């Protein structure tokens, strides 16, 4: 049940981010459900494919969404265990996101467009740095709880763990937050609003997709925000409610607050220069590393 | 084995008639490998086969045995050599008009026989003879295109580098074999630390540990592609085999051995993939990836050794298990990628990545199998590379729960593997994306045609094996139990118990991968259903309204890799040479980049310059006057007599 709610609620978070940005800019903003309208509209349309492309281009959105969905099944949500849990499943989680990226990048290169090649090149650069940051940050939680599966880690975490090791967990959360911004193409790493300027990273890679393919991509993006957000919320709000509905409600509220926070970051910050982004990600990896060393020597 | 040698000789004799020669040479290799696979498989399941004959050489007997460790390396050697021989049979025919193929098949079969003998030999003399047969046979294969100066240079670098390694091994075996040169009578005694370092340098040169890897990126691209596949897929693994075999002689490992391997693994892994990113030649890129994957194997083995020193059997089993499984996995996907690169090179007559493009439409089978290999080498599920890296990760996440030293190991492994994985994905999106996707960048690329079925079939078999191990990792793991217990000294019952629980984990992970495949099929079906009856158009790629896009406007591999190369510029030191456009009507402009290997430029070159100078000084006694030579002989004789006399008294 929680899974179904999660699957349907994921695009809503994008609405929250956009509304927050609109409010800060003094605009009325798009409807909160705009992402649903977009996806529904795209699913009803036909598609146009470039003559340069092959089946790799067509498989990009499918593999991308399937990998994120499979990763979604590994993430515990609302204080309950995930559908699939086993030791070191967080490695499979990270590599499934890697698979999604691999095919998105290949689909971009398949169009023979220099814009999309540029976006693809930047995407692989940033993600090569984001991956160590994410895995090391999750290793902090693994060290603190003595568990090595995502469900075990989040089940073992409580407010007492925050009391015992505030510094490592804070640093790990900071690192995951940066990874969340980078992986979801948010400011300050990327600007989701710019489609055709040379600043773009993620959005330009999907420039040539249309119809149901684009719907898959947009839904996949919403879901990716959801799964990485759930990791962060799971660490920040380690609640084990007796009532599963209460746990679900708290987690949903947490995710909405996270979307609000992302919206605030986007309103107050400008996009970083491309050459500075790697430093931000290296900083996140350094945060995770320091957190781990603190956790080991405390 | 005898069949291999005989068929090689037969191929040499019939070298003029290309077809007969190929039939004999490749057929002999296939038959020999297939026959030898039976005892190898039996050996893996514990039925050791041993032979021992007295021979006239000093130091023990002609002794060979297939135990689990030998069998575990023998199976990939024979398997990959078999499929590569099938591929090579067709591949080499294109050279048949220019030169005789007999020699190449003789050396190919000798190479296979040499590798097989290396892993079964149980006597140091036999081992070194086999080691040299392997090295020399591969040297002649590397210089097969000896009319090209770069092939000759590559051959020399390879010959020198491999013999420096052999020199270390000679010292290693001499110290170890003071009593007898048979392996079962070795006794390390007090020198085990020094012996370990000798083995790391000696075997590490063959395996391609950074910084002893200098020959790899030269020799692998120069050889014919099926030979590159065998050299990169399995020949360098004889170095790993040698190291593991050496460890079984040296007794319980102190912790610093493990750390040495972890540091070597980390530097080989990260620097190997970074140099691969900077390459423009497809086969050179793959050669640097061999350095990277040897690094991953070394990380696993280092973790295994540390698991023994820290008395953590779980870490030891997972470390050795991951490292060993990666040996097989790398043989499969690297063999596959080299065969694919060979098909591309043969179809387009270039290995320059930036001169290719759009080949997936023209070579669909080569393309799809190359894609499988690329995903596997990047460690992505549901392929086999993921399984072996997952095992090392599993050990690492267990290790961070332990004492500080183990935690540091865990952190190193997690951070290192994650970085290597991300960079490898970047490198292979570049390689596959630029070579196979988009539009062809040159007329040669647009005229490419699919390879023959004899070349496609081996690639399909290897790709299927990659997917098979990726989905059935748990089953494959149970085979590893006797090998791990042999290397680590942990009782077989304990390893089998741990591996059984790990298999369950792997099956769950494979369940996740299976779920992924089901989702892919479901989503593909859904899109098909949605688009049924609707209009699907085809048009040019969106170009912002520009009227005349051309293929040269595509993103190139060099530009694709540029941000990462710039970021890690400290290690890479890429050299740029550019003619900047000037004036209103600029003259011809050019831009080129080149990345030198620092190990070659800054370690080996000064070393050899020094050797050269030292050798020049020795010229003083090489003056060509006979009477002085005779004087030298007499002086030496007197010195020896005096020494003997004084020693005796």
Descriptive notes:
The complex is a heterodimer of chains A (298) and B (649). Chain A has helices at residues 2-25, 34-43, 55-72, 89-110, 114-145, 150-156, 159-164, 166-183, 202-205, 211-236, 244-268, 277-296; one strand at residues 47-50. Chain A is mainly α. Chain A has one domain. In chain A, helix 3 packs parallel to helix 10 (211-236) and helix 8 packs antiparallel against helix 12 (277-296). The N and C termini of chain A lie far apart (40 Å). Chain B starts with a helix and ends with a helix. With 649 residues, chain B is mainly alpha-helical. Chain B has helices spanning 2-13, 18-44, 68-91, 102-120, 124-142, 149-176, 192-207, 216-222, 225-235, 237-249, 255-277, 282-309, 313-348, 359-362, 364-377, 384-399, 404-436, 443-446, 453-471, 473-479, 481-488, 492-531, 557-567, 569-572, 598-617, 626-648; strands spanning 49-53, 62-66, 536-539, 575-579, 590-594. In chain B, strands 1-2 form a two-stranded antiparallel ribbon. In chain B, a hairpin with an 8-residue loop joins strand 1 (49-53) and strand 2 (62-66). The model of chain B has no long low-confidence stretch (mean pLDDT 82). In chain B, helix 6 (149-176) packs antiparallel against helix 7 and helix 8 packs antiparallel against helix 9. Chain B is globular. At the A-B interface, strand 1, helix 3, helix 4, helix 5 and helix 10 of A face helix 16, helix 17, helix 22, strand 3 and helix 23 of B. Strand 1 (47-50) of chain A pairs parallel with strand 3 (536-539) of chain B.
**Helicity level of chain A:** over 70%
**What's the number of extended β-strand segments of chain B?**
5
- Main sheet of chain A, how many strands, which sense, barrel? none
**Strand order across the largest sheet of chain B:** 1-2
* Rg of chain A, Cα atoms, Å: 19 Å
- Give the helix/strand class of chain B: mainly alpha
Mean pLDDT level of chain B: 82
User: What amount of the residues of chain A lies in strands?
Assistant: under 5%
Return the structural class of chain A. mainly alpha
Oligomeric state of shown chains:
heterodimer
**Biggest beta sheet attributes of chain B:** 2 strands, antiparallel
Count of individual beta strands of chain A: 1
Low-confidence stretches of chain B: none
């Amino acid at each position: 049940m929680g899974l179904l709610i999660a699957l349907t609620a994921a695009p809503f978070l994008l609405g929250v981010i956009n509304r927050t940005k609109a409010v800060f800019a003094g605009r009325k903003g798009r409807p909160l459900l705009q992402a649903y309208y977009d996806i529904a509209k795209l699913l009803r349309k036909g598609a146009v494919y470039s003559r340069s492309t092959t089946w790799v281009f067509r498989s990009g959105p499918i593999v991308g969404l399937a990998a994120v969905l499979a990763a979604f099944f590994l993430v515990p949500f609302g204080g309950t265990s995930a559908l699939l849990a086993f030791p070191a499943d967080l490695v499979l989680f990270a590599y499934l996101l890697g698979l999604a990226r691999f095919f998105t990048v290949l689909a971009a290169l398949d169009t023979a467009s220099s814009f999309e090649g540029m976006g693809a090149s930047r995407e692989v650069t940033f993600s090569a740095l984001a991956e160590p940051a994410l895995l090391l940050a999750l290793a902090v939680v693994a060290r603190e709880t003595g568990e090595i599966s995502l469900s075990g880690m989040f089940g073992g975490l409580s407010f007492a763990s925050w009391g015992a090791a505030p510094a490592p967990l804070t640093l790990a959360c900071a690192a995951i937050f940066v990874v969340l911004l980078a992986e979801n193409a948010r400011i300050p790493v990327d600007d989701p609003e710019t489609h055709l300027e040379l600043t773009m990273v993620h959005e330009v890679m999907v420039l040539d997709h249309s119809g149901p393919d684009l719907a898959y991509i947009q839904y996949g993006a919403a879901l990716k925000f959801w799964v990485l957000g759930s990791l962060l919320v799971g660490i920040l709000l380690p609640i084990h409610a007796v009532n599963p509905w209460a746990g679900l409600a708290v987690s949903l509220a947490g995710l909405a607050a996270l979307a609000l926070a992302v919206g605030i970051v986007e309103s107050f910050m400008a996009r970083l220069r491309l050459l500075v982004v790697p430093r931000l990600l290296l900083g996140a990896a350094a945060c995770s590393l320091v957190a781990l060393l603190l956790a080991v020597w405390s | 084995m005898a069949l291999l040698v005989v068929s090689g000789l037969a191929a040499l004799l019939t070298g003029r008639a290309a077809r007969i020669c190929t039939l004999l040479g490749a057929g002999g290799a296939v038959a020999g490998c297939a026959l030898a696979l039976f005892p190898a498989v039996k050996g893996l399941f514990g039925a050791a086969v041993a032979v021992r004959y007295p021979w006239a050489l000093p130091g023990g007997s002609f002794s060979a045995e297939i135990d689990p460790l030998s069998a575990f390396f023998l199976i990939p050697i024979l398997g990959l050599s078999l499929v590569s021989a099938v591929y090579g049979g067709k591949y080499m025919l294109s050279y048949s008009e220019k030169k005789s193929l007999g020699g190449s098949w003789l050396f190919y079969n000798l190479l296979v026989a040499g590798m097989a003998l290396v892993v079964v030999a149980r006597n140091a003399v036999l081992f070194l003879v086999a080691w040299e047969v392997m090295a020399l046979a591969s040297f002649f294969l590397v210089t097969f295109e000896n009319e090209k100066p770069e092939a000759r240079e590559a051959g020399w670098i390879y010959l020198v580098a491999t013999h420096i390694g052999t020199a270390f091994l000679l010292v290693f075996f001499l110290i170890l074999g003071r009593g007898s040169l048979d392996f079962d009578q070795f006794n390390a005694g007090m020198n085990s630390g020094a012996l370990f370092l000798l083995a790391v340098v000696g075997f590490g040169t063959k395996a391609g540990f950074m910084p002893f890897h200098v020959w790899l990126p030269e020799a692998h691209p120069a050889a014919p592609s099926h030979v590159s596949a065998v050299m990169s897929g399995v020949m360098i693994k004889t170095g790993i085999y040698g190291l593991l075999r050496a460890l079984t002689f040296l007794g319980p490992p102190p912790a610093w051995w493990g750390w040495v391997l972890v540091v070597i693994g980390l530097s080989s892994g990260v620097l190997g993939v970074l140099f691969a990113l900077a390459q423009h030649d497809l086969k050179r890129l793959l050669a640097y990836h061999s350095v990277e994957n040897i690094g991953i194997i070394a990380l696993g083995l280092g973790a295994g050794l540390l698991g023994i020193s820290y008395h953590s059997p779980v870490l030891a089993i997972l470390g050795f298990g991951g490292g060993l499984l990666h040996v097989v996995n790398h043989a499969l996907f690297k063999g596959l990628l080299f065969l694919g690169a060979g098909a591309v090179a043969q179809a387009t007559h270039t290995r320059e990545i930036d001169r290719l493009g759009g080949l997936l439409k023209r070579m669909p089978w080569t393309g799809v199998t190359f894609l499988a290999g690329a995903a596997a080498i990047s460690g992505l599920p549901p392929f086999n590379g993921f399984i072996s890296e997952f095992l090392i990760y599993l050990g690492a996440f267990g290790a961070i729960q332990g004492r500080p030293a183990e935690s540091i190991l865990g952190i190193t492994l997690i951070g290192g593997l994650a970085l290597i994985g991300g960079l490898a994905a970047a490198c292979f999106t570049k390689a596959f994306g630029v070579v196979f996707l988009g539009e062809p960048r040159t007329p040669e690329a647009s005229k490419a045609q699919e390879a023959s079925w004899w070349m496609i079939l081996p690639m399909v078999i290897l790709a299927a094996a990659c997917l098979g191990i990726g989905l059935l990792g748990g089953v494959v793991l149970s085979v590893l139990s006797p090998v791990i217990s042999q290397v680590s000294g942990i009782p077989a019952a304990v390893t089998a118990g741990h591996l059984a629980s790990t298999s369950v984990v792997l099956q769950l992970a494979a369940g996740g991968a299976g779920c992924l495949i089901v989702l892919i099929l479901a989503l593909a079906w859904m899109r098909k259903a949605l688009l049924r009856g609707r209009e699907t158009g085809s048009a040019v790629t969106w170009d912002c309204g520009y009227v005349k896009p051309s293929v040269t406007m595509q993103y190139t591999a060099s530009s694709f890799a540029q941000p990462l190369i710039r970021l890690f510029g400290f290690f890479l030191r890429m050299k740029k040479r550019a003619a900047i456009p000037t004036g209103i009507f600029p003259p011809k402009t050019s831009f080129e980049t080149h990345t030198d290997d620092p190990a070659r430029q800054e370690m080996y070159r000064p070393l050899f310059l020094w050797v050269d100078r030292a050798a020049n000084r020795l010229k003083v006694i090489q003056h060509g006057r006979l009477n002085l030579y005779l004087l030298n002989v007499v002086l030496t004789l007197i010195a020896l007599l005096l020494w003997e006399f004084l020693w005796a008294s």
